[in-house]
Amino acid sequence: MNLPFFLARRFVAGETLEKTLPVAHQLRAQGLFTTLDLLGEYISERELAEQARDAYLGLLTALGKQTGIDRNISIKLSMLGQKIDESFCLDNLHQVLSLAKDTGTFVRLDMEGSDVTSSTVGILERVHPEYPENVGIVLQAYLKRTREDIDRMCELGARVRLCKGAYKEPAAVAWQDMTQIRERYLEYMDVLMQRGKYPGIATHDDILINAAKEYVSENAVASDRFEFQMLYGIRTETQKDMVGAGFNMRVYIPYGSMWYPYFSRRLRERKENVWFILKHMFVR
Ligand SMILES: Cc1cc2nc3c(=O)[nH]c(=O)nc-3n(C[C@H](O)[C@H](O)[C@H](O)COP(=O)(O)OP(=O)(O)OC[C@H]3O[C@@H](n4cnc5c(N)ncnc54)[C@H](O)[C@@H]3O)c2cc1C
Asked: For atom 28 of ligand 1, which residue has the closest CA?
């Protein structure tokens, strides 16, 4: 779909890295940590996957030259050819992680649809022993398999970002009811806080945020043992308030020209966002 970029500006920091880096510096100046996400997904041709790999390498190189912002990026394995050939994807990922190690960057493997969950967990397990400080994963509370994956990641000592899950999944594999999803989320958060390595509590949901705050206070979990994470453009005041309250907060900053799928997921999550966009379509 060919929509003008100004519609996505609330959720997508810029169409280029040059326009996005100042945003990351600005957030850092406010005490927020960041992770940069070059947008794109589901690449079906080898050549395009190689271009995506080179774009990630370019991002790592550029980030390595910056001072004052985090060396932390989020990537999608489907962009590195996961759906074309897993070993080709693994080769591409090795190149990305090797440069990440050289530049002292942490690379988070975003989690996509349930058709690639096994593959993504398996790939993380293969690369983590070689890059233990440079790679981590995302697990989704809505998937029924996630308890087992949480255990696997705790055993491995891999950093996990815990989120609810953003894709439309069938009832056979995923909880559909929000109460059940929240219950699972809190159960997994408990395990990650006890046995996990620096978990990322990624949510904008006050029920979960308040439960996490209560949990860390009751169990005397030091604030440097975990971090909260939110998306760029969502609950920005809350993000700053949480830094003020002494919590680590990381903002996920998407950028790039392929912003439409990410943007439409954010719209689907919340009716108000659609009104926000419609209003800006007519009032400029
Ligand atoms: C840092 C980060 C990384 C993520 N990475 C992944 C990933 O790799 N894979 C994946 O499947 N999902 C990922 N997600 C998305 C996640 O799975 C959820 O789809 C998304 O966070 C919405 O769920 P929620 O828990 O934030 O709360 P919700 O229940 O959706 O919302 C709770 C409240 O938060 C506010 N809010 C929530 N969403 C919006 C919005 N779009 N606009 C405005 N206000 C809003 C509202 O006040 C709302 O009432 C990530 C989320 C975050 C924060």
From this structure: 205
CB 154 within 8 A of CB 196: yes
The type of residue at 169 is E
- How far apart CA 255 and CA 260 sit, in angstroms, is 11
The burial of 280, by beta-carbon neighbours within 10 Å (0-12 exposed, 13-18 middle, 19 or more buried), is given as middle
Evaluate whether 228 touches 209 at the Cβ level (below 8 Å): yes
Predicted confidence (pLDDT) per residue in 189-217, tens digit: 999 999 999 999 999 999 999 999 999 99
Distance of alpha carbon 237 from alpha carbon 72, whole angstroms = 22
pTM, rounded to two decimals: 0.92
Nearest ligand 1 atom to alpha carbon 163:
17
- Farthest CA pair distance, the chain: 53
> What Å distances lie between residue 39 and 42, 78, 180, 259, CA to CA?
11, 11, 30, 6
Answer CATH for 5-282 from 3.40.50.1260, 3.40.50.2020, 3.20.20.220, 1.10.287.3510: 3.20.20.220
Residues with CB under 6 A from ligand 1: 110-111, 138, 140, 161, 163-167, 202-205, 229-231, 234-235, 252, 266, 269-270, 273
